[in-house]
Amino acid sequence: MFELIRANKRRSMILMSVVLVLLLLLGFAIGFAVVPATQPIQLGNSPFPLPIGGMIGMGLALLVWGVQALAAFFSGDRLLMAAAGAKEIRKQDHPRLFNVVEEMTLAAQLPAMPKVYIIENMSLNAFAAGRDAKHAAVAVTAGLLSKLDRDQLQGVIAHEIGHIANRDVLFMTMAGIMVGSIIMLAEMFLRMMWYSNLSGTRRYSSRRSSRSSGGDGAKLALLVLAGILAVVAPLLANMLYLACSRQREYLADASGAVYTRYPEGLASALEIISRNPGDKASISKATAPMYIVNPLQAGQRSLSSWTSTHPPIEERVRILRGMGTGASFRDYARSWGKIAGRQAASMPASALAAAQSSTSTRSVETQESASQRQRDTGDLLRRINQFRFIQCDCGVQLKLPPEYNKPKVQCVRCGTTHHVPSGAH
Amino acid sequence: MGAVVLILLVFLVVVILWVVGIYNGLVRLRNAVKNAWSQIDVQLKRRHDLIPNLVETAKGYMKHERETLESVTQARNLAQNASGAAKQGAAESQLSQALSQFFVVVERYPDLKANQNFLQIQEELTSTENRISFSRQAYNDAVMMFNNRIEMFPSNIIAGMFQFVRADFFEIDNPVEREVPKVSFS
Fold first, then answer.
1. CA gap A195, A219 in Å, rounded
2. CB within 8 Å: A109 and B36
3. What backbone phi and psi angles, to 5 degrees, belong to A50?
4. Bond from prior residue into A111 cis (ω within 30 degrees of 0)
5. What is the CA radius of gyration of chain B?
6. Domain count, chain B
7. Cβ A102–B123 below 8 Å, yes or no?
8. Using an 8 Å Cβ cutoff, are B96 and B72 in contact?
């Protein structure tokens, strides 16, 4: 496992530096477009036109990068959770979800339990974010909670915890925020180009370029280069991001199977998720690669192209089912090799050598019925929307909306009168 | 002459660093094993704490099942007071049995099954059972890593020098729990 973690760290570093270079180039382009003046300086013995605006732009881009990196590192999970519209919940809001997360924390031997978030959305999805195993968070949608049973939910959470244990989250959080910022900058620049072409550039060039010795040719070339860069940079950043994220999905699936010793849980959960393409409106491009299945591509068939962040769900399900009675990394790698038809390059040797384990024979616990699950999810949503709950002795739970303001309420079954606790949400 | 000494010195430093690295790795794994073991204890204690609540909630509904309830309480008390790994293991598996007996009986009481309190406790118990098995699993994984390191070359040399001893796996010694449950359709 340490090998995996080290490889992930290295990849994160590479991505960060490439993104930094991209950002610097972009900063240069923007600066140059705003102030296309050059200052001739002596370089060796020939004069070299130093673009002042470009330099300032680069400096600003560096500043932006620094701030972004710090923000991503220290509160990336919170930022992304906020971007996804997720709310943090406590144990009493949804004990089952909380318990499942805690169980998987134990199985994965994480040093601390990740924070649990809920997304008020009926589509089926989940994701993890954070800096390291001690500062991490998992989020699931309300739809997921109401559609999956306990074993399936456990499979999904195990996959997310796998992302945390494999240190994918730092990379994903950083990359999500960085790639997002590049896309934003490039868009800004392109819009600016559009307007400055109408007024700004021409005015500047007529007044100042006569002073610079570099000539108009070089400046025009730089400007064109900047334009191309602004178009290409976001694409490039995205591609880099994608290249790294698919292997992680397989790996997280494998970890999920190892933690639960029950690949079928995750397999059937993925199947249910793939049958329920949710609404994509509330999911931004930047956070999309972090979900358990790509929310923007759910329902589409042509998933195996290199542009997708996630391997096709059908393939993931078949690999998980192909593990047979084994539940170790080795079994997953074997099944992966058979189904994907390639050498199992995604599993490093140390992971394969460790832990030969077989699937557990699950004790069949009394599963909650589907209606109970839906009721629980409804309760959860009411709770985070500040409904009040009163437990009656006859077993009925009264749910009061926040706008209910009478001091007393009668139980609907036995008629007992209860006092409404004031202000206690 | 000086060059030879220098090379020897560098070599010595490298060897020492290497030994220190392996030693620290072994210590880290041994601590992981210890930590995983204490996790099992935490989860067992959690189960003991839940049972009085469970019995209290069920009492009102299950007037005719005094025996089942008493056997759960008894098994719980036994498990709580048991000392020594072997005794504790036996008592805990006794408790598991009593609990599964209890949940079979519960099926006959739909009112109890609909009670919110009971559902909550049931979820907690389900989770606790899972936690116990996951922490066992994590413990066994940790033991496996530790033992592998102790036995494999070259770390086995260092392990021998500093007397690292193999850790034992957590085995279920109750034959009943190992068996696949029989289902009969009569």
1. 18
2. yes
3. -90, 120
4. no
5. 25
6. 1
7. no
8. no
For B49, the domain range is 26-168
Q: Please check whether residue B115 lies inside any domain of the structure.
A: yes
The pLDDT profile of chain A, 425 residues, written as one tens digit per residue, is: 556 667 777 777 787 788 788 778 777 777 777 666 666 666 666 666 677 777 887 888 788 778 877 877 777 778 778 877 888 888 888 888 999 999 999 888 888 899 999 988 777 888 888 888 888 889 998 888 888 888 899 999 999 999 888 888 877 777 767 777 777 777 777 777 666 554 444 444 444 444 444 456 666 666 677 777 777 777 776 676 666 677 778 888 888 888 888 888 889 888 888 877 655 444 445 555 556 665 555 444 333 334 455 667 778 888 888 877 666 777 787 777 777 655 444 555 445 444 445 454 444 444 456 677 777 777 777 777 777 777 777 767 777 777 777 777 888 778 778 877 765 44
Residue A160 annotated as catalytic: yes
Residues in chain A, total: 425
DSSP string, A366-389: -PPPHHHHHHHHHHHHHHHTT-EE
User: Does B131 contact A95 at a Cβ distance shorter than 8 Å?
Assistant: no
Nearest-Cα residue of chain B relative to residue A262:
B134
For residue B44, what is the domain's CATH number? 1.20.1440.20
Nearest residue to A315 via CA among A336, A293, A286, A285: A336
Helix, coil or strand: residue A131: strand
Structure ipTM: 0.76
pTM of this prediction? 0.72
